[in-house]
Amino acid sequence: MVLRKPYALLIKNFKKIHFLLFVAIVYIAYTSNKILIFFNEYIKRRQLFFGDRLSSEYINFFLFFIVIIIISITTIIYILMNQKKKPRKLYLVMLIYYILLLVFFYVNYNYFNILQFEGLDPQTVRLIRDFNLISVITQVVFSVLVLVRAVGFDVKKFNFGEDIAELEIDITDNEEFELTSGINTDKVKVKYRKQLRELKYYYLEYKAIIIGILSIIIISIVLTIFLRIRVLNRIYGQDEYVDINKLNLKVNDVYYTKLNYKGEDISEKGYTYIIVNLFLNNKDTKERHLKLDNLKLETRNNIYNTTITRYHHFVDVGMGYRNQKIFPDAKRQYIIIFKVCDEDIGRNMVLRYIENESFRNGRLIGNYTRIRLNPVNLDDFVDVANVDVGKKVYYGLSLLKDTNLKINSIEVDNEFEYVVNDIKHYVVEPIRNKTILKISYELNLDKSVSYINSFVDILQKFGEIRYVKNNKQHNVEFSDITPRNYRANNIYLSVDNEIIDANELLLINTIRRKRYIHVLKKEI
């Protein structure tokens, strides 16, 4: 007799109880969705948080109290249903789920506390976000299932009519909830068809209004999504112009490399350098500049700051940006560098600039401009040209751009004569086992290449001399001994005299693993 009274109470108030349970579940789902939205926004904006209200704003005592109420009601229903051998799987699943949810809310609460003072890495935040998404979806499913029972659509399978008769409960006490199986099914069908007809007539009478309201709702949803994706949270393409801090900015090129301009590996183990070439145009009447501290590189898992101490390794790509001011109407090109984990290369890279910040509800909200990056490997090795003396070589596939070079002739001797202002001068190599290699050339430099001023620069930064003797290849150390007052298109290099008897002599310029080979001598 102990279980009969609460079971009778459950039967008589079955729909009411489930409706209250539905309201509680919807409240928890709404709160969970707020938490999900928070973590989504944090992933997009990487907001900074101050104060001590963040945890209580999203997870408070009332939230835990409601979850405990749901667990309590579900437990009672499950026990009663189990005693009477009624369908109870849903309540068992809900019971387990909401106990786990209680623990998960506590975990979320701790993460909110960490966010207030330390911040979280993007990978952890995405994991928390994904669990919250699963949580919200599950709660929506539970809310639908409980609502179905609250309105009586799923009640007949419980066969409460026999239980009511057994417990001697007056069926009229529960008539309005239609919980018995002894009702007239034909009457129910007639009533259902009548309500359906009335609903149809209602729709026809107010068709224009209903369609108008639905249209407004759909348009509002679509417009909201469009504004969030294309306007408020828009990510620009690499070749699009963007206005940042009154500067017109465009990303020209993006590269990733482990090598410096000489082709030497300078990267730390597990890291690669990202080089972003920026075009800046100041359209304001005042000097403007970008703040390097506000420039970040986002990947799927990490956020990286700029690295200005490595600019000298990438002079072939461009001039490093160090917060230089851009004068009104001036147009400039600079590079910025990021040291990135190898695992992040090619993973949804976004260049982010924070333009301004504002406090809102105890949070520091940043207004970001984002540009999606598509880096190209700068380390691909390829032989671009292999030409004899007298043929012009175009360097356009390298970072020398429209530069071209032609070697007209070479001479090897220990002494060369030249004339300046009708006075004879001599270039002499006094060191034993050394000789002079005179190279006559024609060089047309691309004017936009600022780090190269002469043929000597090309040789010193990118060049090497090799010779082949007795089927063995050797590298030659060389030094420029061209007189300072010499102005002709010739260069004098001090080299090993072994090149005199070489079967083959090569001048090789390697620019980021793009090899340009000038054959200075070759015996047939």
Could you explain the architecture of this structure?
The protein is an alpha+beta fold and 524 residues long. The protein has four domains: 4-183; 191-233; 240-377, Immunoglobulin-like (Sandwich), CATH 2.60.40; 382-522, Immunoglobulin-like (Sandwich). Helix content is 36%, strand content 29%. The protein is built from ten helices and 23 strands. The protein has helices spanning 4-12, 14-45, 54-58, 61-83, 89-117, 122-150, 160-167, 185-205, 207-232, 455-462, and strands spanning 48-49, 235-236, 242-244, 247-257, 271-282, 295-298, 303-305, 331-341, 350-360, 363-372, 376-377, 382-388, 392-394, 404-413, 415-420, 423-428, 434-444, 463-469, 472-476, 479-480, 490-496, 504-511, 514-522. The strands form five sheets. Strands 1, 2, 6, 7, 9 and 10 form a six-stranded mixed sheet that branches. Strands 3, 4, 5, 8 and 11 form a five-stranded mixed sheet that branches. A hairpin with a 4-residue loop joins strand 6 and strand 7. Helix 2 (14-45) packs antiparallel against helix 6. The radius of gyration is 39 Å and the shape is elongated. The termini are far apart. Mean pLDDT is 80; it is low at 48-52 and 163-181.
